[in-house]
Fold this sequence. Notes:
The active site is at residue 340. It is an enzyme of class 1 (oxidoreductase). InterPro entries: Ald_DH/histidinol_DH, Ald_DH_C, Ald_DH_CS_CYS, Ald_DH_CS_GLU, Ald_DH_N, Aldehyde_DH_dom. This protein has helices spanning 51-55, 82-85, 134-151, 156-172, 174-185, 189-210, 245-258, 274-285, 299-307, 320-332, 355-367, 387-399, 419-434, 472-475, 491-499, 514-523; strands at residues 27-28, 65-69, 72-76, 99-101, 104-106, 111-119, 124-132, 217-219, 225-227, 231-232, 235-239, 262-266, 292-294, 311-317, 337-340, 346-349, 379-383, 438-441, 462-465, 482-488, 506-510, 528-531, 559-562. It has 572 residues and is α/β, with parallel strands linked by helices. It has an 8-stranded mixed sheet with strand order 18-19-20-17-16-21-22-23, sandwiched between helices. Strands 13-12-11-14-15 form a 5-stranded parallel sheet, with helices on both faces. A two-stranded antiparallel ribbon has the order 1-10. The longest helix is centred in the middle third of the chain and has 22 residues, at 189-210. The two termini are 28 Å apart. Mean pLDDT is 86; it is low at 1-23 and 29-80. Nicotinamide-adenine-dinucleotide binds at residues 1-2, 239-244, 266, 268-269, 298-299, 302-303, 306, 317-319, 322, 325-326, 340-343, 374, 477, 479, 505, 550.
Amino acid sequence: MPAHSRPGFPKAPPPRGPNSPRIPSFYRPRPSATPPLTGPRLRSALPARKIVGLLSELRPQQMFLRAVSSGLTSLFRTPGLAAVTAMSTGTFVQLDPLNYRDGARVEPVDSSGTEKAFEPATGRVIATLQCSGETEVHLAVKSAKAAFEIWRKKSGMERGQVLLEAARLIKEQKDAIATMETINNGKSIFEARLDIDTSWQCLEYYAGLAASMAGEHVQLPNGSFGYTRREPLGVCVGIGAWNYPFQIACWKSAPALACGNAMIFKPSPFTPVSALLLAEIYTKAGAPPGLFNVVQGGAATGQFLCQHRDVAKVSFTGSVPTGMKIMEMSAKGIKPVTLELGGKSPLIIFSDCDLEDAVKGALVANFLTQGQVCCNGTRVFVQKEIIDKFTKEVVKQTQNIRIGDPLLEDTRMGPLINGPHLERVLGFIKSAKEEGATVLYGGEPYEPTDPKLKHGYYMTPCILTNCRDDMTCVREEIFGPVMSILPFKTEAEVLERANDTTFGLAAGVFTRDIQRAHRVAADLQAGTCYINNYNVSPVELPFGGYKKSGEEVGMHKPATVASAATPVFLSL
Ligand SMILES: NC(=O)c1ccc[n+]([C@@H]2O[C@H](COP(=O)([O-])OP(=O)(O)OC[C@H]3O[C@@H](n4cnc5c(N)ncnc54)[C@H](O)[C@@H]3O)[C@@H](O)[C@H]2O)c1
Ligand SMILES: CCCCC=O
């Protein structure tokens, strides 16, 4: 799922044609006389009514956000979000309902308990959400079904126009949305803005595809003919993780809606806030009420959704263990699933690399979003000849990463998502030491000097050496800022070790030898391979996994990102 056009990465080309590689999996496949258009993740979608007609169905814009700032309560509506953008850490509380149904915020009619959402920078509770019960889930499905009946009859062009308008609104409100994301997730505002860019780009991308997805006309003997249609599936469910809350909601909903489906989205209970902003934007852009509903909750709510008789497909982003449960539940209902799961990706640094770039690449591969990124390259294999030089430089640069208030412009590392997760990450470092690794830098809880951040979930980024392939820190996904450095001698050896994992989400290679770069990328068992860069995920390319990292990607490697740009700077 991720999409990151990082600074310095070549700009995405504008709208895509019918042969674009990312036709989504939200249509009902029909027997086809010709092979799919291109590539492994090729599936498709389609078709109706004028934007003017759509606008007439809109409900009045709902109250948007209530923010408490400097002791004053202010009300914001979707258009004027300047006040949200100007907010500082420690001030926001979310008081409005967090479910979205039929084009409006609502409280769920039943619930199986409550969950608290935090501002990770301060440890403050910013929202208490009701975990939607079975009746609420049923109402959300009913509302989505009604919207689907309107939406499925529209042309691809008409659907694309709504998505384009939604993309425009996201762009217009970028700073406000990024601010909310930073407050609820803890990632730096610098990064959150990049996430919002890749979010509207995703909507534009699928808006561009919507009109060009079509069936086929097939000539049969004696003047007869047949034809195929691409039909939407119906009501699709999206279940998201907490590390890219807004972006995941966009990545799931844009292809589903472009293909003519309705979507019910369940965010992680840790990050309930920003999906509502997307729901309000879709409504404002002209989507019929119910087309994009949000239900809040944890595992139980997710199960009600996956098991609902009228849900046609589940698209899930999260951990491998939960992915297994989702696949099992969906199999029982004979429902297609898309799984975007965890990873433990290798980053291979050859001695002929541009060392400065390789160091930047290793930082972005490990410390982006405080290391809480599915495709992070946390097994850093460095060729023996340069390992000392590389290690010295990577430690120096890591020391320069500014940790602190994520809403400040020059912060590059914020807090982890919550207290239990921080403890879990620190636990991995403890066990790494017990298994013989050396902590070269970091790996400690961190208290920023600003007193309001005292109860935030901060730690220093950690670099481990003397690692072996069999250590827990090298085998398991830590999902925190922990880099393990491993020496290697030859290409054949490192390939074997890099592929010796049950995951297969991403991989990276740094070398100046262009032939070796592509040879190694081709042999790495990973959904995305980065060459001389890392964690750039242009929306035009598919994002999938090998092995337990995700859905079947077929015979082809989904994406190799050969970058002409230097990796993003994390170090100041
Ligand atoms: N491959 C990708 O694109 C991608 C992107 C982001 C995160 N991830 C992965 O996500 C994980 C971190 O996210 P997380 O901690 O939120 O994952 P998680 O598996 O704990 O939860 C993900 C979502 O599933 C829901 N859920 C939990 N149990 C469920 C159940 N039994 N039935 C239905 N829904 C259920 C949660 O409420 C949440 O919304 C990491 O492993 C990371 O690598 C993958
Ligand atoms: C670079 C974005 C990756 C999203 C997965 O966690």
